[in-house]
Amino acid sequence: MRKTLIIGCGGVASVTIHKCCQNSEIFEEIMIASRTKSKCDKLKAKLEGTTKTIIHTAQVDADNVKELVALMKDFQPEVVLNLALPYQDLKIMDACLEVGCHYIDTANYEPEDTAKFEYSWQWAYREKFEQAGLTAILGCGFDPGVTGVFSAYALKHEFDEINYIDILDCNGGDHGYPFATNFNPEINIREVSANGSYWENGHWVETKPMEIKREYDFAQVGKKDMYLLHHEELESLGLNIPGIKRIRFFMTFGESYLTHLKCLENVGMTSIEPIEYEGKQIIPLQFLKAVLPDPASLGPRTIGKTNIGCIFQGKKDGQDKTYYLYNVCDHQECYKEVGSQAVSYTTGVPAMIGTMLLLQGKWKKPGVYNVEEFNPDPFMEALNKWGLPWIEDHNPVLVD
Amino acid sequence: MRKTLIIGCGGVASVTIHKCCQNSEIFEEIMIASRTKSKCDKLKAKLEGTTKTIIHTAQVDADNVKELVALMKDFQPEVVLNLALPYQDLKIMDACLEVGCHYIDTANYEPEDTAKFEYSWQWAYREKFEQAGLTAILGCGFDPGVTGVFSAYALKHEFDEINYIDILDCNGGDHGYPFATNFNPEINIREVSANGSYWENGHWVETKPMEIKREYDFAQVGKKDMYLLHHEELESLGLNIPGIKRIRFFMTFGESYLTHLKCLENVGMTSIEPIEYEGKQIIPLQFLKAVLPDPASLGPRTIGKTNIGCIFQGKKDGQDKTYYLYNVCDHQECYKEVGSQAVSYTTGVPAMIGTMLLLQGKWKKPGVYNVEEFNPDPFMEALNKWGLPWIEDHNPVLVD
């Protein structure tokens, strides 16, 4: 029996596990492990009877390598799919090396106390994974993840050389609340209040938070304001796409969302410095999280679509060429299928696909790799099959 | 020795007590009583040596009539100046009646659980005070307070009949924070999120919160946006100014202030419904108060001026006439003089003046009265003497 250990049981993990259970030929036996076992048990109870996949659950503290090792030794998985917090990536990689499991995740490691996104920590594991004959696949969600696969696919089939990539992440969903965050608000808020940056001519160009704003007319969604953010795939694509001159990442935010966020920041409600309240130390951001709608509660009420993709500019047969690859995903359809809206869906499905390709041996080579370093074709085929079909546009509107 | 009991020791009380101590001929002996005796002791320590006024302090729970009565019986004050919370007015009036003390306050009673401002509860005490031969003066701050005195003065000296009054309360101060409230944020927020209303032709006209907005160019401050609010003096002036057709109250708010307030309301941070947080029931608005700058800390850093006054329109000798009476108060000068900025100063000084006039017998008549029911002349004189000089404008710009 092929065994997969999935660590984490939040919104994304729930989608991935639903999809694994739709794909029992590959995911014959899975173990769901998280800090709160009752969440895993609840999901197991929901899925059992609908799938041939055998589901186990366990409690694990992903910060504790010993606990992780004990769990892996007991369950003996081929691969560990890490859907826990980004703070825990290195601990889980350590445990994989100790036990001898392949590794895959969706978001790069960051230290808990600094909002610093970079691959250096995980890339430092290359030799260890190589020597152990193990594969580690980094950042296999949508962005990073599918955006890297799109880039590899474009390079393989459409271009001789790609010079410019603009990654456009649009969420045209409406949950009906004046303000709510689609996933952990802490991570949302960190992302928006950090400096932006893009990759140009071999180095980073830094911007102030939300300094660069563009409007774009997204297919099936319409016109949205989008802002240049730093995003982790810029770092790996900058190295892995030969001939690249510039890569940028844009994400849409509504004016109201940004105003709320700014006001909350101004009054100190997004601070992670604890304050004394009635004899208790309380972190304002944590209290804000408790006041805001639970991201998990947004699923049933979110309508509209996401549109995420990459606009490529480069050369083919000596000619300038542009090419846009994107996916459109409907919040309500996702919710009907797996009980989560499109933001979780678009991350959770690629995580299942990457794990599948690793188990099938199609994406397996000793070392630590980003997704664009593998053959994109089986992944592109799987996207169409497993709920994230892609659309090509050979004449897209470009971003200034 | 003439004795005055002052209940409360917040920002306004601190100003009033400073001014009483500048006026030791009238305020020979005072007792400062509040829930937290250490605050009273601190103020006493600051003032002793600078004044001939004898200062006592005491702990009292102003919600507890028995405690209040015991304190009054012990100290034997002539008058009780209530600068505690508006929720406590009736308890303090009950105690005054029981012991036989005159009463004066700055804000009308409101039940703690509803944002309902009206005089009915206190006016119901008229007969009791009359029969006891005691005077109760209601609402003797700036607005209500000086605005009523201005109205009585205008009626006495400038008009045969006043038809329209617009009360304009402008705070042109800047504390340098993106958002902070000048006094208890809970009361600030209640005021702004309540429906507005004005008095017209003998009845109330209700508006949505902040529905009516005007720009006005305030002397010594400049152009500010102001919004129509309900305010308690509209109720008493509507009854006490014969011939009145309309009274409105406008207060200035900056756009940024209102945006912050709206966002905080939208996310639930101004709610008074407790939420469960780490096993503790926490009221979001109370937690917000703890995160925001302490209003008392704004004093040293607030610059700029307030401009509060009344624009009257009516008839004199058969002719139409307009008349504007206002005071301009400088935040930094107030802070230098009494350690509080102008918002507390403009309320605290009139409270001292009203109490003085009561002690002098100039504003003494058995019953319950609003300030406009007394002779305005000695009060107007005292305003000039005690730090709130007024300015007349016989040709003001009117509000639409």
UniProtKB/TrEMBL annotation, chains A, B:
<dbReference type="InterPro" id="IPR032095">
    <property type="entry name" value="Sacchrp_dh-like_C"/>
</dbReference>
<feature type="domain" description="Saccharopine dehydrogenase NADP binding">
    <location>
        <begin position="5"/>
        <end position="137"/>
    </location>
</feature>
<feature type="domain" description="Saccharopine dehydrogenase-like C-terminal">
    <location>
        <begin position="141"/>
        <end position="387"/>
    </location>
</feature>
<dbReference type="GO" id="GO:0102143">
    <property type="term" value="F:carboxynorspermidine dehydrogenase activity"/>
</dbReference>
<keyword id="KW-0560">Oxidoreductase</keyword>
<dbReference type="InterPro" id="IPR005097">
    <property type="entry name" value="Sacchrp_dh_NADP-bd"/>
</dbReference>
<dbReference type="Pfam" id="PF03435">
    <property type="entry name" value="Sacchrp_dh_NADP"/>
</dbReference>
<protein>
    <submittedName>
        <fullName>Carboxynorspermidine dehydrogenase</fullName>
        <ecNumber>1.5.1.43</ecNumber>
    </submittedName>
</protein>
<dbReference type="InterPro" id="IPR036291">
    <property type="entry name" value="NAD(P)-bd_dom_sf"/>
</dbReference>
<dbReference type="Pfam" id="PF16653">
    <property type="entry name" value="Sacchrp_dh_C"/>
</dbReference>
